[in-house]
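Async update (no meeting this week)

Hi team, since we skipped the sync, here's where things stand on the single-chain job. The sequence we agreed to prioritize is pasted below, unchanged from the tracker. I ran it this morning and attached the output directly underneath so nobody has to dig for it. Comments welcome in thread, and please keep replies under the output.
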Amino acid sequence: MSSVDHFSALSSCKELAYYMLFCGFYEDGCKLLEATLKFQIDRGASVSKEEKLLLEVIWSSRPDLRFAEVRWEPLSAEEQELVALQTRERICTTDYFFRPRVLPQSPHDWRDSSDPAFVEECARMLSWPSGDKWPDDETTREVLEAMQKSRSLLNGERPAPSIRSYSLEVGTALRVGTEEAREVTEQILENSNDVDWHHSSNKSWMSDCLCFKNMRPVLSSLSAQVLKLSRVDAGAACRDLVEAIESRLGGDLQVPLPSVGWNELLDRLAKAAFLVYGGDEYYKEVGIANYEDILFPPATQEEIEEAEDTLGELPADFKEMVAVHNGYAPISSNHLRFLTSDKV
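Output:
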């Protein structure tokens, strides 16, 4: 965390907390979220109504996870319903969506269109809450059909719509049924390469979904194959991040880092890289199927000596590192890379 601007680090911690909650790791997600909100309040920032609603929804089914110290006025049942409606309106009208060239004359025109943007525009028009009432059951099913048609029309080739549309699709499916919501959520997570917690815009769609009532049974039934975070990794990340945040709250700039060898350090970095970027196209193109493919084989003593003949004596720690793994694959074609000893 920067000693001046904590916004970026806190946002990343929140994104990871939301993803932990999305994976069903409620204890770890709530602990991390509690630490970030405590830090946020301590620095004079307020907690948004959406964040309050998200927590109230979680606490309604897991009262044991309620924060020991809630430092804001809780939302009443009426306020929770109002915030939920406002969230739905924001999802339906946000400018993050791409717009069709021709606007629909009727929201039912989506059936005759092959333009995914046009179909989504119809879905947003149909799903708009009327006053304080949600669309009726028939309209809700039509919205879901339109959203699914829009996604199928994209077929992974055309530019995808804003990630915000995912929360509209999941929220609509949830109003149809738990099983429908599970199927939609798994399809989104499985078929969309850019749906991971590390993309900043995903914090919005995942946090929106966490605000939906009755979402917990959906998340608890998701297949482990579509989630990219294990319980062990979630627990370790939560422990380390909470310790770092609490240390900063106490005035310390950084928690002392544990001392580990090169083999463990590089192994951890490779696992983290594959966890975050394993679904990206570049890794697929270069044939990286697991985290072990990221790390290059060790440099031989002859290779190290050849590099020193050209460059002069290399730092001792660098030679120790390349003797374990002589470089690793970058996360993209234009990303910074750890060069092998012969290319230094």
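Quick observations from my side:
The two ends are 31 Å apart (CA to CA).
Residues 330 and 337 are 5 Å apart (CA to CA).
Reply here if anything looks off.
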